[in-house]
Amino acid sequence: MLTKLKRLFSSGEPRPIRRHKRQVSRARPLEEARSEDIDSFIEAVYQADAKGRSPWVLRDKSVLDTLRRALEFTVHRGLWLQREEGQVQHWQGKLLSLRHGEGPPLGMVLACRPDDEAAWQLRFFYISQEWKGSGHGTRLLMAVRRSLSGVPLQTRLPMVCHSAIDSLEAAGFTRQYVDAFEVASYEAPAKWDE
Asked: How many CB atoms lie within 10 A of CB 109?
């Protein structure tokens, strides 16, 4: 018996190592946000605003109410209300969430654009505090690129947002320029779902 085992395991030539094909796990696509997700988004905006990193300055309740109504309009109608030259424009808008199962969002992103020919602008994105530092920022941005496939993406954010910038660069965004206020513009080329 021992000699049979010996022969079986030592045939003189090294056996080729079998490699299992790695299953490339594709992250779940982003989901359309639900009405109840808006509170999480606004809480993230509050936290960013407290550090001077939000695109909205939440000075008073009227600004907060306006933001909430605009987000609700985006969730229910797919339109983002954008102030431009003293008027309110109706841009295409998406509030998307990254989540595991039915739990609360791990992160969210607000994307908008004036028309079908324009690049999507990522107005604000975040990862929940408890999930920061675990690669979910990059995962969120890669999922955004897949969800909004076929169109370039643009975003602007302060240079002090180091982890957000790391996530952007890991997701294939490149820095275009930095303005006098230390706000960097990033762009990702169109990506098609593979």
From this structure: 27
